[in-house]
Design a protein that fits this description.
alpha/beta; disordered N terminus; binds pyridoxal-5'-phosphate; 14% strand
Length: 412
Amino acid sequence: VSLLTAELTHDPRLAQRVGAMRPSLVREMVAAAARRPLLSLAGGLPPDDAFPQRAIADAAARLLAQADPSVLQYSPTEGDPALIEVVVSDLRERLDITVNEGDVVITSGSQQALDLSAKVLIDPGDVAVVERPAYVGALRALSAYQAQIVGVSVDDDGMDTAHLAALLDDGLRPKLCYVVPNFSNPSGATMSAARRVHLAELSERYGFVVVEDDPYGQLRFAGTDVAPIASHGVGNVLYLGSFSKVVAPALRVGYLTAPAWLTRPMVVAKQATDLTSSAFNQRLIVELFTTNGWLADHVKLLRELYAARADVLLSSLATRVGTRLHARRPEGGMFVWASVAVPGIDASALTAACLRHDVAIVPGTEFTVDGTCAREVRLSFSVLSAANLDEAVARMARGFDDLEAHDNGRST
Ligand SMILES: Cc1ncc(COP(=O)(O)O)c(C=O)c1O
């Protein structure tokens, strides 16, 4: 399996922006895992065995049995009114975000919302601030519109807003700042309440949009909820939600909410992209969310599953890999972010050594645009069973053994 993602070669027949596009190593790892029997800690996918298949089948049967053909028809670009109603009450009850029906747009996954936000906000060369490390899908979307991407470091409390404030003070003028405040991908970090408030203040003072991407918020298994940035009442937060992680990614349904000056252009941009998200899939979600108790039961199941798997991964790492890797414990989501603590071994060497033992991990540089995070790796605990997680870590430990033996061999 080649670990190198081929750069797109410049071809004069292609638009210049193609030169800024990069294939995703994570997606290639997922493809590699499908081709051979790798144990993958690489992808950030929900596990196949946790999909609510029965509930989706029943909901689909109910929808198709109705005489209402609109479920198979084109539908409003803004989204299905019934789903928008579900989103508005979910935002109010769960997150204390008060919006009207007209402030919500249903998207084809939150990835589409990321693309649309870059499309309507970024001119070539405009600055976009991101977490360092940042979600690869956001980096791809921003690069495609030729944003100048500036990473701001992340610690256990999420993006370091004091660092951002210093950059702003020095004259940085971003159009947007993209954050995943809950159990970020890839860092697993949760942004503290104080930093959320600080970021909201900075966005108001300097007039940039905060893109608050929250696909994992419901997957909390430790600690307590922190109010979203969008609940602080500022007029320039674009909040993104997704049904991929609580229902299924294949439905490709997410949503955004933002002030009208931003939602209107995004709706027009969406008309040129996919006209509308799938009416059928939107109605499936309405069926599920209006089935009494279904959502609460399903989310509880996911949280318990992820909590147990995170525990297994972290305790296997402690036992088998020990101090060679410093792993951070997340309060939810799917990811453990870990730093290699052995001098002379970096994440790309570890990734290659792991692959030789048939285990896939992602090196930290994949999540930055400047080659930083070269000692970090992202490990996902969402997909593998407890036994396979332990086996994957055992293989990782053998990868470390190989690298250390090689290093010792060289130095003697
Ligand atoms: C932080 C983050 N944002 C967005 C997405 C894309 O989600 P969706 O399936 O809703 O497009 C992902 C998927 O992994 C993600 O991790």
